[in-house]
Amino acid sequence: MTTADLLIALARANLAAGAAALVVLALRGPVRRGFGAHLGYALWALVPAAAAGSLAPAQDWAGWSGAIAAGAEGRAWLGGGRADSLAALWLAGLAASVALALWRQARFAAAARAGRAGPAVIGVLQPRLVAPADFAQRFSEAERRLIRAHELAHLDRRDHRVGALAVIGAWICWFNPLAHVALAAFRSDQELACDATVMRRLPRARRAYAETLLRTLPAAREAVFGSHWRAAAHPLETRLAMLARRQPSQAHRDLGLAALAVLSAGGFGVAWASQPPPLLPAFVPAAVMMVELAPADARETAWVYRALPPRR
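The structure assignment produced for this chain is given below.
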């Protein structure tokens, strides 16, 4: 695969993922209200499904002459060193995104060591709970129990690892504004789903949970790889409104999961069907090779003739 092929695949995946992100951004609110916060969060599975569909190999080459011509023009435009220049620009942006994230994570780690960060769960491979130095003085035992329940729900749901994958996806698509908008909305939906998990485990603590959220100030510094009890990026009004809603019934959740499976499969299929096939087979000239094994001239072992297809 050439550099031009990689750039075209990256652009195709961004178009598919961006279209899926727009669909999720439009549906997440109604889905969350109708089927619960868990399904509103799971709706983000549509984005990687669409991206994967755009990269899956196409099988049918019939009827793709227009797409093949457009793809050939795109590869021709990327010639003459343009592909290498664009790849270098993309790598520079990727490196800058990673460096900025690591700097932010280092600042949070320094604040955590000084006792000025948290409550939060940080880390990917070995997550741990970070609490401020005055955690015991600032919160009562009942409030600390609810905060620990929230962070434990993040760990049980593997939110720290799923969130890390979302961050890496935003790094790869750093040039796409929709990737950053989707990442912020994804994190907000992740917190709402975590709140719903705590309420399912502690249904009688709804009021105390909301009061503890109201008493907590947003985190001054937020970790890139972490889940915060109360972060500035997570709208408090939305979290409180979701706490006031009743949990959907099991029938509603099952119906929503079935609809999500169909939607994800449909997103994959649409992205797969929208991509052109590989260009190579369309440009292999058709030829017929004729070999005469018993030539008239005995001094020759064989004559090879090539018959080109007739012009139309």
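Interim note for the steering committee: The CA atoms of residues 204 and 233 lie 27 Å apart. Strands lie at 120-122, 128-130, 226-228, 288-292, 303-307.
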